[in-house]
Amino acid sequence: MRKLPKIELHCHLDGSVRAETILDIARKENLELPSYNINDIKKLVQVPIDCTSLDEYLKKFDLANKVMQTKESIKRVTFELVEDAANENVKYIEIRFAPMLHMKKGLSIKEVIQSVLKGMNQACEKYEIKANLILGCMRNMSVEDAELVVKEGKEFLGKGVVAIDLCGPEVEGFATKYKKAIESARSYGYRVTIHAGEAASGKNVIDAINLLGAERIGHGINIKDMKEAYDLVKRTNVTLEMCPTSNLHTKAIDKISDYPFFNFYKDDLSVTLNTDNRTVSDVDLTNEISLVKDNFNMSEEDYKRIYLNSVDATFADEDTKMWLKSLI
Ligand SMILES: O=c1[nH]cnc2c1ncn2[C@H]1C[C@H](O)[C@@H](CO)O1
Ligand SMILES: [Zn+2]
């Protein structure tokens, strides 16, 4: 599994910072941590299996965000994420992050994005991997904040930024509020992926597609319980960015045998496999693919089809897509 070429479309930067790096940056920048023992840090940033909800899961990001407030540290953690992905043969990764979370020490939205780009480009030069960025707007911040991210980020379109996302806590009916912000993002040329149907119903997936123009959905697992949402995803060929271990942690499902990924795949939905958060969920993409392979008898042919689905669903340019197709 480790040797197979891979594509990752749903990976949060702040959920994928190495624990060792959190400790190292905190020491270098004289930041206060609850402990300076690596095992304690791991416990603080990894979610326990008895986590009960997405809201509890989201508390695990605080420490990583604390050490992602300077240009240098942001560049470093991005470089390391791409390095980690390249080391398990991920050939293309779309990294998402919420610029607004990294302004506590005075960085501007543009400086945050530039720092992530630097780390990403540096790693892409060193390893055989390509990458792009997705800007996240936090749903627990204001609509004005989302509009600001869209506006400030637009000059990086075509220079490494490809899409916009809404992330953070999910309530029923969240989409309406962001209609204008996402509409303007689309008019600038951002592609659109939206977290939906993860901690709330499939109705949010319907809204993300119909109101926000989502081309991809983060998770979307709850369409399994709503025929109307399921049929819409199937009819529109919207891609689901699925993340099994994360869904186990947030209790979107209770056990892996309930995971609908393989049923979705067999029914010709466009599904992809992703980590969501490498550190918080303590996984890599090899783990996630193996988890599905072992539990659902996924064959190598199935894997190839899923890989090709992922190529089609990337927000990459045509040359990158052709290169990715040539690898499998
Ligand atoms: O799975 C998720 N659902 C909703 N929000 C999430 C998920 N994983 C991470 N986030 C949030 C927490 C991060 O601080 C933020 C930006 O990456 O996105
Ligand atoms: Zn996510």
Automatic annotation (TrEMBL):
EC number(s): the record gives 3.5.4.4
Instruction: Report domain Adenosine deaminase positions.
Output: 5-327
Quick check: keyword Hydrolase in the entry? Answer: yes
Q: How is the cofactor bound?
A: Binds 1 zinc ion per subunit.
Q: Its catalytic activity? A: adenosine + H2O + H(+) = inosine + NH4(+); 2'-deoxyadenosine + H2O + H(+) = 2'-deoxyinosine + NH4(+)
Single annotated GO MF: hydrolase activity
Question: Which residues carry the site feature described as Important for catalytic activity?
Answer: 219
Q: What InterPro entries does UniProt report for this protein, alphabetically? A: A_deaminase, A_deaminase_dom, Ado/ade_deaminase, Metal_Hydrolase
NCBIfam families registered for this protein in UniProt: aden_deam
Family affiliation: Belongs to the metallo-dependent hydrolases superfamily. Adenosine and AMP deaminases family. Adenosine deaminase subfamily.
State the name under which the record lists this protein: Adenosine deaminase
The source organism is Romboutsia faecis
Report which gene this protein is encoded by: add
